[in-house]
Structures are given as C-alpha cells and as structure tokens.
Amino acid sequence: MKRTDAARRTVVPSGRSTRATTTVGAIAALASLVLTACTADTETAHRASPAARSEATAADGKLTYAQDLRISDAKQHLITSCMRKKGFRFWEEEPLSLEESRPIGYVQDDVDWARSHGYGSRITAKENRARLRNPNIAYRNSLPRSRQKAYDIAMDGGQDAVLLKSPTPFGGTITKQSGGCVSQAEKALYGDPAAWFRSDATVSNLRPLYVDKLLRDKEFKSAVSAWSRCMSNAGHPFPDPNAARQSTREHSAEQTRAEEAKTFANETRIAVADATCARSVSLRSIGQRREAHYVTELARKYGNALDANRQMQQHALTRAERIVPARS
Predict the structure, then answer these.
(1) Is the dihedral of CA 246, 107, 174, 74 positive or negative?
(2) Average per-residue pLDDT in the chain?
(3) How far is the C-alpha of 155 from the C-alpha of 153, rounded, in Å?
(4) Half-sphere exposure of residue 79, counting CA atoms within 13 Å on the CB side?
(5) What is the residue extent of each domain of the chain?
(6) How far apart are CA 188 and CA 173, in angstroms?
(7) Is 116 exposed, middle or buried (0-12, 13-18, 19+ CB in 10 A)?
(8) Compositional bias of type Basic and acidic residues: which residue ranges (predicted)?
(9) Across-strand partners of 177?
(10) Could you tell me which residues come within 8 angstroms of residue 288 by beta carbon, excluding any fewer than 6 positions away?
(11) How many whole angstroms separate alpha carbon 299 and alpha carbon 27?
C-alpha cells in the first residue's frame, strides 16, 4: 500500500504518468476513507502482529489493507513478467513491509504504531527515495527514442491505446489509457479492464459526496471536541486530528540528521498523544458508525457500482493469492 492519508494509489513503475490514477481496494478504502483503515477494534487486535491485525475483520467481506496490497503486488508482478517477455528489462518495486504500508486515516488510534512511526514521515521519505531511484525510469530514458516508443506501447499501449472514459459522481470525466502490459495485468486480475475502470472511477470518487457531512455531523463533532480537550490536557492544543498532524509537517525540507531526529521526536510525541486521546474518547468507533450512515445513503444510488466493484476485487484477490505471497 503505497501509504497515503486516505487511500492507496496503484503505482505502475514505468516511469511514465498515466491519464488517470485509480485506487485498488476501493470498497475497503471507502469504508474507512476519512477515519482510519485499521479495521480491528479491540485491544487484543492492537497488540497483535501487523498481519493478524490487518486480517481481523476480513469476515465482513471488505478487503483488508493487506489483501489490497496483495492485489497491487500481483499487478506489479504481472506487469514485470509481461514487460520482460516483450524484450525489455524491468524491475519490480521493492515493497514496504506490511506495517510500513498501513494506511493512515483522519483518526489514528494505534498507540504502538504511533510510538514507532509517528505519523509516518520517515516511511513517506523512504517511499520518495525509492521513487527517485526507480531503475525503470533510468532504463527507459537510456533507450533510443524508437525503443522508448516501443517501451511505452508495451507498457500501456502508448499514445494510440484505447482511451477509457468514465463520469465521476461529482461531475467531470476521468480518462485512462488502456493497453499493453497494464491492461493484460488488469484483465488477469479483474476480468474486464474497462468494467473495472468504470466501477473504480465511481467508487473511488464517492468521498466528496459525504466527507463534509461527516465532518459536520453532530455526534462526530462532539467526539472530536472531546479529543481536543484530551489533547489540550496533554499539552498539545489542537482543534482536530488533522491540525495535529499538519503541525508536524511545518519544517524545512532540508534538515541535518540531528534536526530530523528532533523533528521526528516531536512528531512521535504528538502522534502518540493523538492516538491515546482518540482511543480514550472512542473517536474511531463513533466516526465509523456515523460514516457508515452516510455511506449507506450513497449505496442507495450507487449500490450497483459498489457491488460490482466488490465482486471484481474479490475476484482479483483470488487470482492474486495464486501469484504472490502476502506481505510480511
């Protein structure tokens, strides 16, 4: 999982940008888009290993982030194999560990994770370094222009690839090239790349339709206020979790090792207090309950897209389990 503060991105390590970025595991992301993607809710689960914690609620039918990652890793593997068969050198991304890949939502209440990683700034820096060193970018740039064109065609069909289009729930249209090894990988996992794109374009863009409602929700706002009082008592006066997190990002991009260590120590202190207060006021469980209410409202209109997306993800997971192991 490439780690983000809301939802994961599917990253194709080609060195080229695509016309659309879609998510993997949109159902799982939707169900925890604002709050947190950590699904387990018991003290035992918080003390469990990352693998056990990530699988804790798989029985409810939604993909866990570990399963989501497995699909993404399988896609990477399929693209790598396909590109090599087409005569190009290709390197599969070195994945983050399962613990490092854990998504962070609006609410982060895993105290142990916060104690080790803060808000994940070092993990993000690690990702950025890997992205800059991506050997596929350097390899493509080293090719003659004619071979670069052949590389692009092999990867995603190039400029003459089929252009998929899908409207978004909030207006506008998303487009994406469909061809080459990327399309082949999606076909192997999801069955129909075009159907997957349409479903994912809808489901992964439902957030704007309900986020504001959730953040203004009376019960959720009351829980955030309780969190804020707890944080103030701990010496960290912030109005909400986002403000706490943003405060740790206000530093120079260029830091000495000593400065970075000091910055990270501050980030960790705030993140631990944040997680501790979130648990003490049950912010996540309250938020998840209210979020479910608004997602259910959307399901009345977008139920078919949600069902189709979920079915294709389950199909992709079954295929991925035959292709790559789970991350550890």
Answers:
(1) positive
(2) 83
(3) 5
(4) 28
(5) 26-213+299-320
(6) 26
(7) middle
(8) 247-260
(9) 163
(10) 32, 35
(11) 11
Closest CA to 140 of 124, 156, 162: 156
- When pLDDT is averaged across residues 297-313 and rounded to a whole number, the result is 91
Amino acid at 217: D
Model confidence pLDDT, tens digit, residues 197-254: 999 999 989 988 999 999 999 999 999 999 999 999 999 999 999 999 999 987 766 7
Query: Hunting for tokens 């993000």 — which residue is that?
Result: 124
The answer for residues whose C-beta is within 8 angstroms of residue 174's C-beta and 6 or more apart is 20, 22, 165, 166, 167, 168, 201, 205
Q: Which two three-digit tokens encode residue 127?
A: 């990702």
What is the C-alpha to C-alpha distance for residues 98 and 46, in angstroms, rounded to an integer?
Answer: 15
Question: According to the model, what pLDDT value does residue 252 have?
Answer: 62
Q: Return d(Cα 143, Cα 83) in angstroms, integer.
A: 15
Three-class secondary structure assignment of the chain: CCCCCCCCCCCCCCCCCCCCCCCCCHHHHHHCCCCCCCCCCCHHHHHCCHHHHHCCCHHHCCCCHHHHHHHHHHHHHHHHHHHHHCCCCCCCCCCCCCCCCCCCCCCCCCHHHHHHHCCCHHHHHHHHHHHHCCHHHHHHHHCCHHHHHHHHHHHHCHHHCEEEEEECCCCCEEEEEECHHHHHHHHHHHCCHHHHHHHHHHHCCCHHHCHHHHHHCHHHHHHHHHHHHHHHHCCCCCCCHHHHHHHCCCCCCCCCHHHHHHHHHHHHHHHHHHHHHHHHCCHHHHHHHHHHHHHHHHHHHHHHHHHHHHHHHHHHHHHHCCCCCCCC
pLDDT one-digit tens code per residue, 114-147:
999 999 999 999 999 999 999 999 999 999 999 9
Residue type, 246: Q
